């Protein structure tokens, strides 16, 4: 306990490092990690815990901006400890009575917030957004061709899914796994802000239909991973309605904005979706993992996935069997992911999540306002950030004098990786970078960390300049 | 903390109830579980924790025998708390340096124990055995027809998977999801002990080939869910070799026996498998979830699943990229499941797991010896249990005098559900029951709980008789 609490305290202390970085081979040799025949004593076990935490990333550190999931909420952490202590499985009411009820209450609340009448519909907490998106694809296919469950893809025409070129790679991963194939995922063009262009969507749907293929799913994104863009959901909904296609919204990253009266307009149209992925472990700061798939039509998940295992879902139990929700999952055993979200929600209230989200978006705007006209920075796209993603290049002095030609691009592409490596070696802060399309490596700042302040944003800028000015 | 530790202490106390059972509607009304706009204070939050634990099942209770995963290991629990505190994701070395290394070390050790030379191969911790089995099916298909990734199932011939009629339902679930279809999963006959009959396997493979179908996977089971049966892996391996079919072993439940010098012979032949599912969260008592898929051929998982997301798996990072293992997963974010297993292994040593497993099997044999000749009990199958599964009917006095006809069967089928309902209402112990094939509802006792003793087994028998004698 002391070891864990010390770590928590350190995580929030700006004077400690975000990471004590070592290269993989170094770290392998630094310590004896091997598993042996003989037991070790308590003292040794405690030392392993200390060592593990010494080399871990402090994801709760106010200057850790590397991923969409950052921060450490103390109520969420306590709830996760309780979950571990209860150590049960979600498949039946029999062995998880409270957690099954809390899942029911929480998913209903999330559906109300999405805007489905009375919070009706279905849903599940799944192990991450990629699996939630895969569920959506699976259910959409089943809705159109229920025979696929028994007969497989051989019995159905060629199915086509549509998603934007900025969407998450899990759509392709899902299509590969489900036997649909990545070639059948059509990537729709985006505008310069990373939003799907509806006219291109309609054009590609028509093109697919002309080839005799069957469009079965459009996955719009609410909060893309890199730009934080929101696809125009209302326009997408109109197109899906017109062509009778399942509309999925991947709001893994953007879903949190539904908690904010100020920002939820960015998801207008989400209420028309057939299914929504929403990861409270991202923008809402719930400990990992907590991802929900929400489905408008009730019963579909169950028909799609159920296999009636008689040793789990006995039909002659003494309680209402509709609470045995396990057979609608792809998983058999399913980790309890709901309690940390539920308890945080009780502790913060919807208004507490709202305040957190508004603050993170305000910080992103603060960053944007500082760097948009600052010497040495170029924005990857124009305009205020819609989410907390702020994408930019830092241009070191030696490059500022160069013409905008290939040599400059090539040199610029090497800047972010070097600064990032130096950041990790000095351990002061962490932020992500990547190339995208024809754009060479740029920084993607995201803010979901409740501990972050204006001073931490200022620090990040100073740090990038300190580490990159000689490049 | 006090609340959690009190719960742990109570869990181990035989005088407390395993469960304080309430019907779903009762429990919904007993307490206000709803989510609201306004925050609640710390006192209220602590009360929610207490209430949640009050109604939870004590899965660590010495008399909780309901599932394959039971018990509460204190080192495992501490490790899970540490995992929650570190709150990170498995996708890259960058953000999970220690955990990525520990996954590498632990999976390698597990492959060594399986018997693959030098522990070579590949693997991943996945969210449960059903997903691990789905991975195996996915990889087996990709190995035979790599074009399926891009082209989907339409581009490949009809694929057939084989598994026994006693195997886990996740094989069918996986086939439905992957677009193979449940009709293409052929269930092979079992002998009276629940073991796959190799001659029937070969017959069905030939039959499929004659129809022009392509057998691509045999999933043998090492430790079936209900009977605890071990398929004859050597004979299955010979058949797989002869017909060039991927051999998967679902050792989710039975894998733990590999840690025991006394019992590992039951899995002879597992070293010839192409892939193995092994869930340390079952027989090895690791907190939920901890399931491994192990693959003999290295690199296949990566080729099968990778999508090269440029924002996660940057190719110009400053460290050895082979430690960024996230792209071989179906998931994007992946929970850290390795640390609790690794820390328990350090604390117990391989010999500690061995002692635990030997003890559980000894307890199962103790139970079997008591009831095999005891009045009022009938064994579902003859012979000593191979795993800790002991399957039996309790026959109340009123039924003992009846002839073995349909009426008796019909009455007998109602005995286990009533006893189980009474068990839950009195909260004294929990054990599972189910029908199987033409066998009406019988009890399936399983022992994986490290806290269970001979006295708890005696208690179970007395309790069944106390609750069922009037039926």
From TrEMBL, chains A, B:
InterPro entries: PyrdxlP-dep_de-COase, PyrdxlP-dep_Trfase, PyrdxlP-dep_Trfase_major, Pyridoxal-P_BS. Its main location: cytoplasm. It is found in: Cytoplasm, Cytosol; Cytoplasmic vesicle; Golgi apparatus membrane; Presynaptic cell membrane. GO terms for molecular function: glutamate decarboxylase activity; pyridoxal phosphate binding. Transmembrane segments: none annotated. The modification N6-(pyridoxal phosphate)lysine is found at residue 282. Belongs to the group II decarboxylase family. This is Glutamate decarboxylase 2. The lineage of its organism: Eukaryota, Metazoa, Chordata, Craniata, Vertebrata. The gene is GAD2.
């Amino acid at each position: 306990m002391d070891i864990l609490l010390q770590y928590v305290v350190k995580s929030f202390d700006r004077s400690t490092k975000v990471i004590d970085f070592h290269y993989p081979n170094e770290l392998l040799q630094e310590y004896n990690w091997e598993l042996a025949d003989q037991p070790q004593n308590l003292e040794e076990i405690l030392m392993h815990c200390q060592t593990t935490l010494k080399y871990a990333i402090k994801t709760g550190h106010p200057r850790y901006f590397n991923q969409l999931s950052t921060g450490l909420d103390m109520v969420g952490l306590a709830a996760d400890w309780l979950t571990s202590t209860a150590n049960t499985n979600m498949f039946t009411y029999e062995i998880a009575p409270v957690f099954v009820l809390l899942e029911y209450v929480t998913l209903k609340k999330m559906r109300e917030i999405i805007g489905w009448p009375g919070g009706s519909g279905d849903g599940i907490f799944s192990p991450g957004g990629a699996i939630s998106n895969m569920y959506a694809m699976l259910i959409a296919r089943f809705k159109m061709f229920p025979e696929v469950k028994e007969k497989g893809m051989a019995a159905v025409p060629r199915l086509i899914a549509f998603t934007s070129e900025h969407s998450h790679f899990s759509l392709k991963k899902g299509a590969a796994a489900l036997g649909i194939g990545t070639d059948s995922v059509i990537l729709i063009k985006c505008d310069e802000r990373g939003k799907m262009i509806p006219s291109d969507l309609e054009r590609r749907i028509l093109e697919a239909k002309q080839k005799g293929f069957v469009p079965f799913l459009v996955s719009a994104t609410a909060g893309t991973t890199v730009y934080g863009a929101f696809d125009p959901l209302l326009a997408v909904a109109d197109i899906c309605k017109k062509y009778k296609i399942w509309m999925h919204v991947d709001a893994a990253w953007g879903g949190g904005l539904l908690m904010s009266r100020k920002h939820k307009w960015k998801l207008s149209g989400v209420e028309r979706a057939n299914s929504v992925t929403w990861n409270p472990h991202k923008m809402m700061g719930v400990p990992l993992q907590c991802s929900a798939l929400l489905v408008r039509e009730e019963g579909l998940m169950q028909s799609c996935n159920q296999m009636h295992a008689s040793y789990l879902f006995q039909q002659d139990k003494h309680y209402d069997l509709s609470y045995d929700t396990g057979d609608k999952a792809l998983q058999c055993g399913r980790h309890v992911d709901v309690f940390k979200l539920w308890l945080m929600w009780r502790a913060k209230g919807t208004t507490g999540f709202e305040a957190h989200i508004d603050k993170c978006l305000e910080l992103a705007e603060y960053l944007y306002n500082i760097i948009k006209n600052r010497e040495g920075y170029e924005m990857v796209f124009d305009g205020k950030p819609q989410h907390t993603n702020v994408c930019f290049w830092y241009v070191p002095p030696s490059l500022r004098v160069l013409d905008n030609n290939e040599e400059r691009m090539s040199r610029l592409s090497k800047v972010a990786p070097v600064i990032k490596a130096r950041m990790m070696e000095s351990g002061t802060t962490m932020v992500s970078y990547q190339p995208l399309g024809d754009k060479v490596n740029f920084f993607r700042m995201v803010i979901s960390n409740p501990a972050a302040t204006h001073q931490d944003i200022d620090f990040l800028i100073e740090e990038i300049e300190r580490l990159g000015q000689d490049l």
